[in-house]
Amino acid sequence: MSDKITSPAKINLRLDIVGRDPSSGYHFLAMVLAPVTLADEIVIEDADRLTVRVENCPEAIPQERNIVYRMIRAIEEEIGRKIPPLAVTIRKEVPTGGGMGGGSSNGAAILRYLDRRFSLSLGIERMTRIAASIGSDIPFFLHGKPAIVAGFGEQVTPVKIVSFPFRLLLVHPGFSVDTRSAYVLWDKKMLTKRAPTDTNLARVSSLGSLTEWKDFLRNDFESVIFDEYPAIATLACRLSDEGAEKTLLTGSGSTVVGFFTDASRRERAFEHLKNDYRFVRKAEIVG
Fold this sequence. Notes:
Layout: E1 2-20, E2 27-46, E3 51-55, H1 67-79, E4 86-91, H2 102-117, H3 123-134, H4 138-141, E5 147-151, E6 155-158, E7 167-172, H5 179-188, H6 210-216, E8 218-219, H7 222-228, H8 230-241, E9 246-249, E10 256-260, H9 263-273, E11 279-283
Helix pairs in contact: 1-2, 1-3, 7-8
């Protein structure tokens, strides 16, 4: 038996760092995330033993550290028995270390697939608990639609975006930003807010006009990442010069999203930027 499933990337429409847990050092976030049409493909086949293989990925990750492998083992621990052995091949389209949650999406996709295929009947609460034990972005991907995400990533509230005026251009600068290092940069500059300023994220469902959206789109990490990585700041400027109404770092980077209201401008930007950057993709939000 062989199955194929897709595993979408995400972008941040908003990211606020609203506090820090003094005991663990983990940061509290308030975010709006949206899945996009860019996606990995995952092929699952019956096998004699569990294997997880990744194609089109420059980084060699040991199988035992792969999120999909870890997810399968976590499911087995949860249900108290082994899953029939599978050969899993992940065909990457989403760059690793780009802030688009490719690995987390892979983990969520395999969790949903195994729950369905083997009639595990885990339910969203158990799946969320399993997902959160592996990675903070994974619970969001279980829903397959835009959502308000809070806490350490485990608090997910799906939201309907009524009007979204943008076409997206995703550009990866060719290098990654380590998330842990990004938080260290944030803490060094003592930028963590005393209170969640202007994070009424539920209003995303009522946004309609271009002005409202441009005011809403924000990522706190830009204040430190652009200083530390001038090439990312330059990329954002390039997108603006090419006609993007707004640019936004997604996650802690390094991918920058250009938000275009004009399809022809996005097309021209795509043609210009693809000569200078290896990864330039047109995309739309899903849901």
